Amino acid sequence: MNKKPAALVCGMLEDNGRILFLLKKDERGVERLWMPCTDIYSSANSVIELAKEFKRQTGIDGEVHEVVFQNKHNSGSRKRKFIIPVLVFKMTAKNRTTKPSDEFSGFRWLSLDDAKTHRLDRKLEWLKY
């Protein structure tokens, strides 16, 4: 049986008005912005899971704080929509030296407005609205 996520949780690390975004190439080699995130299933602790994934994806040992933004995300397909909540948590870190995991091609520090002008990964499409 294919379990469906209960929510998408993201970690937003800010530095002087800019937010950390990772760069991820899609199946056609097009680079897209990605915010460190993970799907959460009903029995999981979202803060613990986000802290683990944030460190794995960025190489930064971040601390998870309060929810700063909420939205909705279609985790299904365009034909079979499955809408789940998106919770964006504020992250802090003493050391912001970024070492993205191998699935990412790099990173950028951008304002939210600048990020909206870039190509976004499917899990970040909620940022447009």
Could you characterize the architecture of this molecule?
With 129 residues, the chain is mainly β. The chain has one domain (7-128): Nucleoside Triphosphate Pyrophosphohydrolase. The protein contains two helices and seven strands, in the order ββββαβββα. Strands 1, 2, 3, 4, 5, 6 and 7 form a seven-stranded mixed beta sheet that branches.
Topology (elements, then pairings):
Elements: E1 7-15, E2 18-25, E3 31-34, E4 37-40, H1 46-58, E5 63-74, E6 83-92, E7 106-110, H2 112-116
InterPro entries: NUDIX_hydrolase-like_dom_sf
Indicate how many domains the architecture comprises: 1
CATH class: Alpha Beta
CATH fold assignment: Nucleoside Triphosphate Pyrophosphohydrolase
Shape: globular
Major sheet, described briefly?
Answer: 7 strands, mixed
Q: Name the average pLDDT.
A: 94
Number of strands: 7
Strand content: 35-45%
CATH architecture: Alpha-Beta Complex
Unreliable spans = none
Helix and strand pattern: EEEEHEEEH
What's the gyration radius in Å? 14 Å
How much helical structure, as a percent, in the residues?
A: 10-25%
Assembly form of the protein = single chain
DSSP helical segment count: 2
Structural class: mainly beta
Q: Considering the protein shown, what is the CATH homologous superfamily?
A: Nucleoside Triphosphate Pyrophosphohydrolase
List key phrases describing it:
mainly beta, seven-stranded mixed beta sheet, single chain, 129 residues, 14% helix, NUDIX_hydrolase-like_dom_sf, Nucleoside Triphosphate Pyrophosphohydrolase
